[in-house]
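User: Here's a chain of 365 residues. Predict its fold as tokens.
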Amino acid sequence: MKRRTFVKAAAAGVATAAAASSFPAPALSQGKQQWKMALTWPANTPGLGLAAQRVAKRIEMFTEGKIKIKVYGAGELVPAFESFNAASAGDIEMYQGAEYYWQGHHKAFNFFTTVPFGLTGSEHYAWINFGGGQELWDELSAQFNLKGFANAWTGVQMGGWFRKEINKLDDLKGLKFRMPGIGGEVLRRLGVAVVNLPAAEIFPALQSGTIDGSEWVGPWNDTMFGFYKIAKYYYAAGFHEPGTVGSFGINKKTWDGLTDTEREMITTVMQAEGQWQTSEFRARDLAALNKLVDEHGVQLRSFTNEMYREFGRLSGEVVRDMASQDPLTKRVYESYAGFRKGAISLSKIQEGKYLRARELPFKWA
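Assistant: Prediction complete.
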């Protein structure tokens, strides 16, 4: 898919935003339901938007047409960051996004997307499925009449696109930079003017100079948005999103009204899509990174150890501050932090040790 077509579709979605309050109720005919799913990015976004379309298709297939889902890209039905409110209110049945977008509703949502220097994607999935994370997520989401589902790991995300090299912490001060979630608050404490923009608005903001830089996802998604045309310095690895897990949210009243079989089918579709999309991100990122460097002249850079240490110190400070704000956030934090401690211990003797060994200089291929 060419970037021109992709961005044109994204812009068209933003231009056609409609008020959620005008939506009709889901069509019911002989036990059949017509759902609306609103995305926080364009519907044709590689990986993310296409995953939503696969989920919609498979749910319709597995329910033998009893549940049909129409997918709307960001701005086609509601503005990108209004999809949560629309699903919560029952104006739509479903959204696809990232839970840290909803931190304005409750800080605990951050933990169900990613935490700087927190869990990797596989560890995050383990916490959600077997460490009590899903139960806490359900408790949190129920306050907003929603039921949340994990939607794949995008890989350790890149540190972002910059017009100039960033060699020390002082180089960040005064920059206007797009970064959501806890990572954004870390940069804010370092003197960065942090903004959060929907995906379709990042390129125009970079192009116009409204922002100086941005992070998005990784090589595959970032290439499709064309950020390399404006900013040539691409930093790795990002401190802010080590285990980013996207999400689907379903209106809880709608969810509770389904049969046990329908709920099990939908849960299975979500789990299968998570595995598929996680592996797709890994494969596509490999090819896209080579293309960015070899064909587009992108300069790969890394933050210094001094910078990573300060990012880490401030990340812990921000997370602890959040945990002190209310009892539920504290319980989510304690669960997450406890799982992280165990994950670090295991990683030291498993993945971490193996990855260091794999980099040793011996002939293999």
